[in-house]
Design a protein that fits this description.
Layout lengths: L3 H29 L1 H13 L17 H31 L5 H6 L2 H25 L11 H19 L5
Helix pairs in contact: 1-2, 1-3, 1-6, 2-3, 3-5, 5-6
């Protein structure tokens, strides 16, 4: 029978691995079907589907170089996050039976990956996309619900990782 401590460590490792897998699939999709989500970035930055009488249109950007630069930056950050979470989960699995200090130290890569994810989906999508570019006003190009779902899971896993380790 497995101890509760082992099961908590296993839950931490599996959760981080699941995040890493999600990011691998996201990066794969964003690179193999580049223009599907590029159009999303383009329309959010153009602000062409927000309320017609909105007074924040002055914030819109209409330059294809900036659309591509923004989208490539998002893909780069997602790739970095995938790397951190995959390495982090590998270290968690590798040290699952180690002493508390060693297992705790193996969380660093996972925490870094999750923080990158919070930067992408909270700062990038919810703050910049949602508030600055008024994505919340668009019924077509609105990724706030998906961003909120991802941020919620990331924060829950970050809290799970924070629980104290015992020998």
């Amino acid at each position: 029978m497995y101890s509760v401590q082992f099961l908590f460590r296993l839950a931490k490792a599996i959760s981080v691995a699941a995040i890493g897998l999600m990011l691998l699939l996201i990066v794969f999709g964003n690179t193999t079907d580049y223009y599907a989500n590029y159009r999303f970035v383009e329309h959010v930055m153009k602000m062409d589907t927000i309320f017609p009488d909105s007074h924040v249109q002055y914030r819109s950007i209409n330059h294809s170089f900036l659309f591509h630069a923004g989208y490539v930056f998002i893909i780069f950050m997602q790739t970095l996050m995938a790397y951190c979470c995959i390495k982090g989960s590998w270290l968690l699995f590798k040290n699952i039976n180690s002493d508390a200090a060693t297992f705790h130290a193996s969380k660093n890569w996972a925490v870094a990956g999750i923080i990158i994810g919070i930067l992408i989906w909270f700062l990038g999508f919810e703050v910049i996309g949602g508030e600055w570019f008024a994505m919340w006003q668009s019924s077509i190009w609105n990724g706030l619900a998906n961003a909120e779902r991802i941020v919620s899971f990331l924060v829950l896993v970050l809290i799970l990782l924070h629980f104290e380790e015992k020998n």
